[in-house]
Amino acid sequence: MLPTDEKRRRIEAKGRIREFVFGIQDGLISTVGLLAGMQAAGANRFIILMAGVTSILSGAFSMSAGAYLSSKAEKEIFDNELKKEAEFVEQEPYLAQEGLLEFLHREGLSREAGYRIVKLLHQQKSVFVATFQEKVLGLGGADINNPLKAALVMALSFVIGGAIPLAPFLLLPLDVALLVAAALTGAVLFGVGMFKGRLAGQSMGRSGLEFLAIALAATGIGYGIGKAVEYFVGGPLPVG
Predict the structure, then answer these.
(1) What's the number of CA atoms in the CB half-sphere (13 Å) around residue 138?
(2) Structural contact between residues 36 and 183, judged by C-beta atoms closer than 8 angstroms
(3) Confidence of residue 2 (pLDDT cuts 50, 70, 90)
(4) 44: left (phi > 0), else alpha (psi -120 to 50), else beta?
(5) For this UniProt entry, which segments traverse the membrane (predicted)?
(6) Coil vs helix vs strand at 237
(7) pLDDT surpassing 70 at residue 122
(8) Inter-residue contact 160 to 26 (CB < 8 Å)
C-alpha cells in the first residue's frame, strides 16, 4: 500500500483534472466552433488564423484568471470555515463532542463505543478538531484548490486545446482543414473523455462518446452560425 502522504498527494494531483478537462475541452470546442463559423462565412486563411490565435490567447488569459479567482475565493471561504469551526471547538467543547458523538452513532457505532472514541480523541485537541471538521462538517484537509496551480493548468490546457484544431488551417485547403480540425477535435475529446472515465472509475467508452457528442454539436452550431451570417450579410466576409 502507498504511504498516507503519497496517497494524499496523488488525490490532490488528480484534483487538477477539473481544470485540465475544463481548459482543454473549452479550448477545443470554442476554437473549432469559431473556425467552422468563419470558414462557413467565407473568411480567408489569414483572417481565420488571426481570429483563431486571438481567440486562443484571450481565452487562455480569461480562463486562467477566472480559475485563479474562483479557486482563490473557494479556498479563502474553506479556510475561514475551518478557522471558525476550530474556534467553536475551543469555545464549546461539549457541544463539539456531542456533535461528533451523534455522527459516530449515525454511522452505526453504539453510543458507548462512540463516547469512548470521542473521549480518546479529545485528549489530543488538534486531532479532535481535524476529526470534527472532516466528519461532522465535511471539511476535508486536502488542499486541492491551489489558485496558482489551477490558473496554470487551465491556461496551458486551453492553449493546447485551441492549437489542435487551428493547426490544419496553416497548410491545408480550408474545406479540408475544417474536416481535419473537426476530426482531431473529436479524437482528442474522445481521448480526454476516456481518461476522465478511467480516473473516475466510469465506462471509458461512454465517457469518451459523451465528450465527442459535445464536440460534434459545437462544430455544427458554429458552422450554422457562420452560414447564417453569410446569408444575412449577402456574401462571404471581406478579405481585408
Answers:
(1) 0
(2) no
(3) very low
(4) beta
(5) 20-40, 46-69, 150-170, 176-195, 207-226
(6) coil
(7) no
(8) no
Name the pLDDT band for 167 (thresholds 50, 70, 90): very high
> Measuring CA to CA, how many Å separate 35 from each of 53, 155, 229?
11, 20, 14
Burial of 4 (0-12, 13-18, 19+ CB in 10 A): exposed
Q: In this structure, are residues 42 and 237 in contact, taking their beta carbons and an 8 Å threshold? A: yes
Is the CB of residue 48 less than 8 Å from the CB of residue 38?
Answer: yes
* Residue 51 to residue 120: CA distance in whole angstroms: 64
What is the Cβ-side half-sphere exposure of residue 90, based on CA atoms within 13 angstroms?
Answer: 7
Cβ neighbours around 116 below 10 Å, total? 13
C-alpha cell at 161: 486545446
Which residues make Cβ contacts (< 8 Å) with residue 19, sequence separation at least 6? 67, 149, 150, 153, 154, 157
User: Assign residue 213 a region: left if phi > 0, alpha if psi is -120 to 50, beta otherwise?
Assistant: alpha
Radius of gyration (C-alpha) of the chain in whole angstroms? 25
Q: What are the sequence ranges of the domains in the chain?
A: 16-231
- List the grid coordinates of 104: 459516530
Is the Cβ–Cβ distance between 31 and 56 less than 8 Å? Answer: yes
**CA pair distance 223, 41, nearest whole angstrom:** 8
Comparison of pLDDT for 50 and 212, the residue scoring more? 50
Which stretch, 3-12, 35-44, 55-64, 125-134, has highest mean pLDDT?
55-64
Judged against a pLDDT cut of 80, whether residue 179 lies above it is answered with yes
| Arithmetic mean of pLDDT, 124-128 | 66
